[in-house]
Model the fold of this input.
Amino acid sequence: MRLQERVITVTGAASGIGRAIAVQAAKEGAKVVVSDVDETGGAQTVDLIEADGGTAAFLRTDISREDDAQALVDFAVETYGRLDGCANNAGIALASHPLHETPTDLWLKTQAVNATGTFFQLRAQLAYLAKNGGGAIVNTASLAGITPAVGVTAYAASKFAVIGLTKQAALEYVGKGVRVNAIAPGVIRTPIFDNSSPEEMAAFEALQPGGRLGEPEEMATVVCFLLSDEASYVNGAILNADMGATAF
Ligand SMILES: NC(=O)c1ccc[n+]([C@@H]2O[C@H](COP(=O)([O-])OP(=O)(O)OC[C@H]3O[C@@H](n4cnc5c(N)ncnc54)[C@H](O)[C@@H]3O)[C@@H](O)[C@H]2O)c1
Done:
């Protein structure tokens, strides 16, 4: 139980990779603060954890709202007495466009959630962890933040920002006992692809090394490793969990 008694917040925990992280962290002994804009899905994640004998509580937060980041830290401390780790996982992937056709509102919304939202979370979390004995943070970046892909300018730029924030925070806070890492998932089977056609999904699948998509649970175990003391000398790393898609 490598996260025994740790208090861990997970954003975007109502669905997909975030739900899997929350469930896995609880299995590994953590008390989990499940956070999302989706209250129904968040409550379902708490139910899943509690049905398995774990401990979890839900707080509705929108990571693009500045005040919600501090509210999440405060809720964790008020509910479980402390905060030890954070999985900053919430993110959006809106429609694909060539760069010159990317609508301004799509660009701004994507940056507001994925880039600025991660910044707001980190700022509140680092202030707390630096003052309270340290901890571990894992951001969810993307394969799209490592290597460019056609048609996803806004999303890719936002995930390059997540990687930049991860490295910046890792260096600035290592002296305060805080490790900050990221995972860069390949293509993972989650509801984020609900708007993709079966043809697009088949094309994604065919492109993956090994010929299959990843499963959310395969990301969750990696995130829990990085949150745990097993990764005590890992800081500022971007762990590519993509079956080798970026092995070049
Ligand atoms: N699925 C993939 O192939 C893949 C690949 C690389 C990276 N990612 C990243 O993984 C993360 C999780 O994605 P997923 O595939 O599980 O998608 P998902 O859509 O299943 O889950 C995303 C969750 O984030 C929540 N969310 C969206 N905007 C939010 C906001 N402003 N505040 C709080 N919560 C918000 C949603 O309600 C949802 O529950 C995202 O950051 C995504 O960019 C996914």
Notes: Residues 11-12, 14-18, 36-38, 41, 61-64, 89-93, 113, 117, 140, 142-143, 185, 187-188, 190-192 surround nicotinamide-adenine-dinucleotide (CB under 6 Å). The CA atoms of residues 174 and 235 lie 8 Å apart. The chain has one domain: 7-241. DSSP finds seven helices and seven strands in the chain.
